[in-house]
Amino acid sequence: MAMAFWPMFGTCSCRVQFGPMKRKQQLRLLLALSVAWLLGMVWFFGAGSGAVAMNVVDEDGQPVAGAVIYAGDTELGATDASGEAEVAWSRRTGEYTVKAPGYTDRTVEIIEPTADPVTVRIETRRLRGVVRDGDGRPVPGVYVAAGYGSAVTGLDGRFLVQLAEPGPVEVFRPAWEAADYTWDGSPGETTVVIEPKVVRAVHIAGDVPSDPQRWDYQLRLADNTELNGAMLDLKDEDGLIFYDSQVAVAREAGSVLAQWDLAEVVGKFDERGLYVIGRIVTFQDPRAARAFPDLAVFDSTTGRPYEKAGQYFLDPSNTEARTYALELAVEACEAGVDEIQFDYIRFPDGFPDHVVFDAGTGTEMRASQDARIATIESFMLSAREALHPLGCAVAADIFGFITTAQDDGGIGQKWSSVTDALDVVSPMVYPALYGRDWYGYERPFDYPGPIVDNALADGIERLDSGAVIRPWLQDWAYTDDQVRAQIDSAEKYGLGWMLWNPFSNVSEGALDSAP
Predict the structure, then answer these.
(1) At what angle do helices 369-387 and 319-334 cross, to 10 degrees?
(2) Left (φ > 0), alpha (ψ -120 to 50) or beta: where does 264 sit?
(3) Percentage helix, strand, coil, to 5, in the chain?
(4) Which terminus of the chain has a lower count of CB atoms within 10 Å, N or C?
(5) 126 close to 161: Cβ distance less than 8 angstroms
(6) How many CB atoms lie within 10 A of CB 144?
(7) Which residues contact residue 385 at a Cβ distance below 8 angstroms, ignoring those fewer than 6 apart?
(8) What distance in Å separates the CA atoms of residue 173 and residue 168, rounded to the nearest whole number?
(9) What is the pLDDT, as a whole number, of residue 113?
(10) Whole-structure pTM value
(11) Is a pLDDT exceeding 70 seen at residue 287?
(12) Dihedral of CA 415/417/420/424: which sign?
């Protein structure tokens, strides 16, 4: 007997010739061939045919947790913390796609299950670019976030974001206008342009918000003039704190006056769209120095905190003294302040050999400019570390002559150091503080506009960082026109400014009307 048999899989066609046999034998043989055919179908299409172990790693061989494995559109499983997963295998779904946030997709083909895990390498998705200002200069210290990754620009303004995802990219540096753009996932370098915030503000003394008449005047001034910022004393030269601070050192030193609610005051500024700057007088602090002598610059001849012309300084190298200022700053940022301006972040000027710091004796600190600079710079960097996560800019007042001086003036403030470490640098370019023949003027006080112009020109020429220069301008002992001459000198360079009057008696006539 002869009969034909064509399998339903493969490309093989065959004819089976049966010799003489009984019908029962023929039926048995036919049944066996049918079973074989069915088993072949199962094997071919792979239904429930086993499992595949996968080990997903990045280009450096490090495990990737949370990578999801797909067969077509079907999710089969995800890797654990060690980068491993076990998924079903079948011939029909021999192609697997591995996807993980921040990585490029990878498709692999697995012909048959193996005893050993299959290693799958996936590549980190990277976003590259450079951040520049409007004049094309690189801006360092800018935060760039995309997807699951973030980076900070280097001195050349360039960034590399690992684990980036196509979509929105946020570009942010405190004291600069934020920028954003959409990344389509393509390679290459993107150029992003950002601009510094141009803030115009006046000094608001700490007791002003508690005086209805003076407070209303300051708010009206902001409403009716070109001012777009508010510079408010949080802690002043006497060590007094005007809001209800909860910082332990402040309360134990009796420094807290609690004249007004900080969040409420910030809210009034926010209603007007004002950029809020909180001033904290840092190391010059007679109250804390007398209450906690261990935190102060110590006078070895008197056995008491060092005092000069009524000034007492906390030790800039003392950990607790530094922490006190930082805790106040964090408290203010959490209340909504946009920028903390540290004043008196320096060594006392002209300190004698017989004083003692944690970092060394007066003799040692006088002899080492590097030690002074490093002490002040490390405080500023600590402030950035503490405040940047809160979205707060770090600023500081410095003496005006520092924009020109090549050294630290004996106090730890060197131009290159402070501009590298800070978001905003505010030189006090008060003409009244410049001695005879500065910038070629026998009496600098009589030339407010040119003095400010020269001081800022020197600082800008020597600026090689992303710091914003926003000078303090003199608003005492001058006419409105003389104050305006200083403002015009600052705006000539596209800079913001702040007017300093210790009692907040603002020369309103020097201000332009609200735009």
Answers:
(1) 30
(2) alpha
(3) 30, 30, 40
(4) C
(5) yes
(6) 24
(7) none
(8) 17
(9) 78
(10) 0.85
(11) yes
(12) negative
